Sequence to fold (247 residues):
Amino acid sequence: MLIKLINPNTTVSMTEVLRDAASAVASPGTEILASTSRSGAVSIEGHYDEAMSIVGLVDEIMEEPAADAYIIACFGDPGLLAAREITAAPVIGIAEAAMHAATFVATGFSVVTTLDRTRIIAEHLVRNYGMQHHCRRVRSTNVPVLELDRPDSNSRSIILAECQAALDEDKSGAIVLGCAGMADLVRFLEDRLQVPVIDGVAAAVKFAEALVGMGLKTSKRGDLAYPLVKPYAGKLASYAPRARPST
Fold:
């Protein structure tokens, strides 16, 4: 089984963190192909960053070899539904995967993310995914994404303190890490908090393996059917949808 893990930002060192987190939980026989977007922002921390990342995401999905499943490794799940339109393979967003995983191990969870503006985006996702009755709060640490990649950063202690506050104040039973760049913090946090800490990268790998193992593909009936064939103009002309086989 080939799972393509796509980092929608352009920071290669972060892709390496994501690859390690994915490989650590992958089953024997699962190959993780980690890729870094070739266009877009160095970090995704807002709606505009997300929108600009989608072209690079599409490039990675359309590139050969085709994978059995794809993972969008950004907690905003940018371009998730568009990605599901262009391939029949399962496409998993790490925020959706992490939230679902949390509901299996706790009756309530808190999301701990980076900036306050990304907290608001995560709150939108909570509502979109129908998680209002499970997510007790989304918390921001005001740690920029790229700070997570710096060895001399004190981001670990800041994130730990916010997670502890979530347990004490929100009365949550689990923590969802609200940034792909936090993927290497799971053991550090679990050892200190003694509750489940869910990294969306790891959760997405296991869900992808399950969907592929069940033989499930993305429905091509309704709104996730392949994009309608039509011309595009300007800088996006080369991205105009082409005819696809019917399924």
Q: What stands out?
A: The chain is about 40% helix and 15% strand.
